[in-house]
Amino acid sequence: MKKEEAFVGEFKELLLDYVRFKRNLGYKYDTTPANLRRFSEFSLHYDIVNKSLSRQLVLDWTARRKNEGVKTWEHRSSDLRQFALYLQDKGYDAFIPLGKRKVSRGDFVPYIFTHDEIECFFKACDSILPHPLSNKHDSYPLLFRLLYCCGLRISEAIHLKVSDVDLHTGVLFIRESKFNKDRLIPMSESLREMCMQYTRKLSRHSESENYFLRLKKGTPLNHSTVYKSFRELLWKAGISHGGKGKGPRLHDLRHTFCVHTIASQVNNGIDLYCALPILSAYLGHTSVAATQHYVRLTVEAYPELMEQVSRTCAYIFPEVELK
């Protein structure tokens, strides 16, 4: 790992403690320290008393710079905002810059594919024609099935190494995913067979540290390129897209996996009280509470299951007394 440059100035010890605190919570925190280090250098030009984060220092640092991209500006401001909140929590005076409003789960409704749409989408994937400069016709049908059938995040799928795919047991090893969590993902027999066919064709002589799903030159698949192909395949499958930010998104394949899994469990009479912790671990969620969100989505997608869900998972839907 590349050695990080040290913080400087009045806030250097607090900045170091803050970064350690975040990493102990499970955040990778790879890019934020660099922003905060530049902030610590910027703060050298100000008179700081009792480690107080003044309004003027904050406003000067968070002002948008000439030719600075919106995302870069927002990330830089957000990094300082989080540090300022940390200072306040530790009892120091700190001016809190305004934060960008994030879309909450209550605001955003993911797109849940129907089973027919999933079938049409995979038919479109399987119809990708071979090209002498590309191996999309081999890698994309497997990639999109991994997203839906295993509920993987796109970053988890494209960063799988050859050594992470156990073809004998049919288990995927997801390394250092969100919140630095590792987990094991068992595959269905049909998906394991598909991975074996892909390996026999493209990866038979690959080194263990090579990317499992990769371009012809050996580099991993690119997120933006995959998304572009995803949009094209949706159109080919007859599934309309609402435009940028409206979906369906790649991540909606993971959402759909969750909803279809819960619906199947309910139909099979499985107690969700026992099943949700297992699904939570499978998905790599930090808590069961994050997984419970999908119960509501399942009921919305399959309203006929409401009565069954209410019986097996009543603790999620508390009764409300009308007065």
Fill in the keyword field for this structure.
323 residues; mainly alpha; hpI Integrase, Chain A; three-stranded antiparallel beta sheet; 3 strands; 50% helix; globular; disordered C terminus
Overview of this protein structure:
- The chain is mainly α.
- It folds into two domains: 12-89; 103-323, Intergrase catalytic core (hpI Integrase, Chain A), CATH 1.10.443.10.
- Helices cover 50% and strands 3% of the residues.
- It is built from 13 helices and three strands; from the N terminus they run αααααααβββαααααα.
- The protein has a three-stranded antiparallel β-sheet, with no helix packed on it.
- The radius of gyration is 24 Å and the shape is globular.
- The model is unreliable at 314-323 (pLDDT under 50).
CATH architecture of the largest domain: Orthogonal Bundle
Mind summarizing the main beta sheet? 3 strands, antiparallel
Report the mean per-residue pLDDT as an integer.
Answer: 84
Low-pLDDT windows of residues = 314-323
Helices and strands, in order, run as: HHHHHHHEEEHHHHHH
Sheet/helix structural class? mainly alpha
**Total tally of structural domains:** 2
